[in-house]
Amino acid sequence: MTATDRTATGEREDGASLVGEGLPEGFPTVVAFEGSTRADLYERWLPDRVPFVRPDSVAAAREVIDESTAVALVRHELSESNRRAIRSLLDRRAPECRVVLTTSTRSPVADDVFDIRMCLSEPIDEDGFRDAASRQLHLAMYAALLERYYQTTAAMASLEVRLDETEREENDRYRDLDEHVKKLKAQLDAVERYLDPGDVSALLFEIVPPEFERQSDELPAGENKYRPDRCHQCDRDWNANPDGSRAGY
């Protein structure tokens, strides 16, 4: 699949948006810490429906970066102090944001500040940029949806402990959660079509919702009331890695 074959927002071919079910307003936003000329290019290369902001200073960035920020384009040639300030701001306000480092050199660079997921080096053309942006935006959307999916199925599992089948059918909270899970699952399936299997596997290793980390002395190791052994919707064993080995939390 080429860059021009992909949409940069995860929209289905029928045009129905995949973004919005439980996600922050404005998600996914791209923020660019770039010079005005490059920022102009990047904004023009992205579809109009992708929110794009370009703060001209770290102080200005404090006004626009929040949980809707999905991808940050950061120039490697910025001073280390500025890069560290940007890193600190992203860590506090948009911890799930995916950083794409850009550089004027002709080969990828190492960076002492950011854990680089992707580096774009010169020459950066439209196809290469759109492909990189599309991949990172889809990864950000998938990660955000997956975290909410886990949180919602965990909440359902907690109710299932207390309610029998008849009570679940009559419980408004349970029915709302069940409907939410179905919508999230449909969105995950649709976004996954734009990702490589390796990307999905990597995200499954990365994402452990905070509720899942709480342990209970009354339950076996690896299981607690916030994180059942498996997803009751897809039957995925949360204690096993994709290769079948036992997962650690």
Rg, Cα atoms, Å: 20 Å
Alpha-carbon distance between the two ends? 35 Å
How many DSSP E strands?
5
Strand order of the largest sheet: 2-1-3-4-5
Described by strand count, sense and barrel closure, the largest sheet is: 5 strands, parallel
Secondary structural class: alpha/beta
Q: What percentage of the residues does DSSP assign to strands (E)?
A: 5-15%
Written as H for each helix and E for each strand, in order along the chain, the element string is EHEHEHEEHHHH
CATH homologous superfamily label of the domain at 3-136: Response regulator
Instruction: Determine the mean pLDDT.
Output: 79
Q: Characterize the overall form.
A: elongated
3D architecture notes:
The chain is an alpha/beta fold and 249 residues long. The protein has a domain of 134 residues: Response regulator (Rossmann fold). The chain has seven helices and five strands; from the N terminus they run E-H-E-H-E-H-E-E-H-H-H-H. It has a five-stranded parallel beta sheet with strand order 2-1-3-4-5, covered by helices on one side. Helix 1 links the parallel strand 1 and strand 2. Helix 4 runs antiparallel to helix 6. The protein is elongated.
